[in-house]
Amino acid sequence: MSNAIYATLARQHGLMQEMQVVSNNLANSSTTGYKTDRAIFAEFLVGSDSGNTSLSMGSLAGHAFEMEQGGLKATGGQFDVAVQGNGFFSIETPQGPRLTRAGHFQLSADGTLVDMIGNSVLGVGGGPIQIPPEATQVTISADGTISADGELIEQIGVVLPDGELMRDSNTYFSAPGGYGNATDFSVVQGALEQSNVSPVLEVARMIEVQRAYEAGQTILEREDQRIGQVISTIRER
Q1: Domain that holds residue 138
Q2: For the chain, how many structural domains are there in total?
Q3: Where would you tag: which of 84, 87, 215, 237 has the fewest CB atoms within 10 A of its CB?
């Protein structure tokens, strides 16, 4: 197989991976707390047998997330909360603590504050938050402090990762380096942070990737035809 085909196939594979990222962004353009994903590619240079030239090939090296604040949508929900500024809510999952900006919370049957999947929302002390079942009025202040009928209950944990984030699901992130309590933030009750995906930009990027893929397909077809013609010419001799 020629170097041109190797390089083009690597490019096509990368474009397919980027198309998956763009498609996932579009699919989550209305998902609460979703952050736009960007594919990061690395280039590898391989020397030729002659040593005078090299072959450049790329592959997916990782992901970067655009953490800009999404717009806030007022819902009026008593347990709907959004973070303004830096920080994430901490959620206890079967796989361990996860961070999220999706604050669509509710109460479980035993009065535990949970997210939509049923995982416990963690307080500043790292434990689950219990709301008295007889409480009629629950308020959440700007620092995340929860009061039930005027009595202080707990404070929602808002944290910052120590180091990089890894996406665990569409709205869950893991922090391999750990995390600590955030300071520069404000919790808004009765609101949810919307996705920060720009559908217009993602559609434009999708078209760009699709055209690049089609161009690569044309190169592969022409290279295949060229090799076929060379083989036919040699056979005829």
Answers
A1: 72-193
A2: 2
A3: 237
